[in-house]
Amino acid sequence: MEKRNLAIFFFAGCFSTMTDGCHVRACQDLEMLLALGWRVAVYSYRNHSQWPWNAKGIDTFRARFPGVDLVLDEWNWKLAFVQKLKGVIAYFGSWPGNRALRTWLPRLTPEFDRLQRDPDLKLALVSYPWGISHLNGTPGPRMIVDTHDLSALEAMAGAPAGRLNARSMLTLRRELFYLGQADEIWSISYGEGQFLRSMLARERVRIVPPSLRSWTMKAAANAQPVYDLVFVGSNNRWNGDAISGFLTAYEKWNLPLKIAIAGSVCRDRRLTPGNGVQLLGFVDDLASLYAKARAAICPVEGTGTKIKLIEALSAGRPVFAAPGALTGLLPGYEGCVLPLDRESIATLLGNPDALRAAQEAAARYAGAYSFERVVAETSEGLAGAPMDHFIVSRNR
Q1: Where residue 109 falls among pLDDT bands split at 50, 70, 90?
Q2: What's one Pfam family here (predicted)?
Q3: Same domain, residue pair 182 and 46
Q4: Triad 109, 113, 115: Cα angle to 5°
Q5: Is residue 293, in this structure, part of any structural domain at all?
Q6: What CA–CA distance (Å, rounded) separates 168 from 173?
Q7: Any idea which of 90-94, 165-169, 179-183 has the lowest mean pLDDT?
Q8: Residue 204 counted as domain residue
Q9: Which strands form 184-187's sheet, in the order they lie side by side?
Q10: pTM for the whole thing?
Q11: What is the pLDDT of residues 41-97, one digit of tens each?
Q12: How many domains does the chain have?
């Protein structure tokens, strides 16, 4: 049997059912490693408090990623205590933080320890900066951290201008310390990537946007529109707050629009059908849903890159977005991502030629997020062997 270098992919809980945006990103990371020829083992905790690995999640994973090892350990109070302790020590940085993150305790994670003994282990890709503190020791000879988004920037965004609180600054200090341990940093967001390049060694920060490969304009072009606007989101507080706030403002606009809301966010009790609004619940075929809509909305502020926004653009649908949703986008979105206000929506939807041009601009712009392009631009050093100048010696 052909021997291939091993990469460990770590996500703390189950991501295969893709109920959240971070799960979509995790699947994309895993798909990139596989496309580049790595032998991959996914490491996670079976009993994660938010996303446990139940039978459905495991079956979905094995069906989607045949041949990929799923390696699960049990999260327990000892690991939780050590993780909290590492988080506190990380505030002090430098020597004590480095020593804490390298600390390995025997018999806590037998499956992780088994992976560490594989002679072909060359790479670990860790989801989230804090993911490092959830591991029992150092994960591999070379470590990449996918930031997903930065908690500190999210906390700062919610504070009054010029009045940052101590908690957000301490969170930033800790996140930067974690990221300083990585040989390479992946940022899903263009804006956050530029920020990290100004705070850390620039050459170690790589902007890796969402990678999509399942959307085609053909289906969208042949469909008859049923909805004027569509919003897709999971049931978290950011999505719920954003879409309920938008609908409250929309009630005063006096526009006869048909708006579809899809995803588990429909379980939010603040959302009710009526006034042209339909709650569709979970939708398996999002491509067909976008094909039935003239445009999409993204009222969600915050950090990172909104994958729902990229999905809509990839389906050839322009997006009316909140200002905070723009910071994560690659440059060049102006022709297809527009302000989320009454005037912009009424103007574009009332002009068939302008709408068609915006839809075409969306499809062109989304090419920057195609799976093939993102993989090609991220492939340096990931084609089966680590880059010598990125390897950092670690005492185990």
Answers
A1: very high
A2: Glyco_trans_1_4
A3: yes
A4: 125
A5: yes
A6: 9
A7: 165-169
A8: yes
A9: 69-73, 39-45, 6-10, 121-127, 143-146, 184-187, 205-207
A10: 0.82
A11: 999 999 999 999 999 999 999 999 999 999 999 999 999 999 999 988 888 877 788
A12: 2
What percentage of the chain reaches a pLDDT higher than 70? 88
* pLDDT score of 217 more than 60: no
Range of the domain at 254: 217-369
pLDDT at 325: 87
- pLDDT given for residue 146 in this prediction: 95
pLDDT in tens, 284-322: 888 889 999 999 999 988 666 688 899 899 999 999 999
DSSP annotation of 204 reads: G
Q: Sheet harboring 337-339: ordered strands across?
A: 277-281, 259-262, 227-232, 293-298, 319-321, 337-339
Contacts for 208 with CB less than 8 Å, ≥ 6 apart: 146, 186, 187, 188, 374, 378
| 352 and 221 inside one domain | yes
- On whether residue 165 sits in a domain, the answer given is yes
Q: Mark whether 307 and 355 lie in a shared domain.
A: yes
Cβ-proximal residues to 364 (8 Å cutoff; 6+ apart), any chain:
none
Q: What per-residue confidence (pLDDT) applies to 391?
A: 32
- Are residue 22 and residue 46 in the same domain, yes or no? yes
Q: Alpha-carbon distance 236 to 282, whole Å?
A: 14
Beta strands in 169-214 (DSSP E): 184-187, 205-207
Answer yes or no: is 395 within a domain: no
Which two structure tokens, joined as six digits, stand for 303?
């950090």
Task: Let me know whether 165 and 177 are in one domain.
Answer: yes
Q: Is there a single domain that holds both residue 149 and residue 283?
A: no
- List the CATH number of the domain containing 115: 3.40.50.2000
Cβ distance 227 to 294 under 8 Å? yes
Are 229 and 285 found together in one domain? yes
Cα-only R_g, the chain: 22
Do 304 and 381 lie in one domain? The reply is no
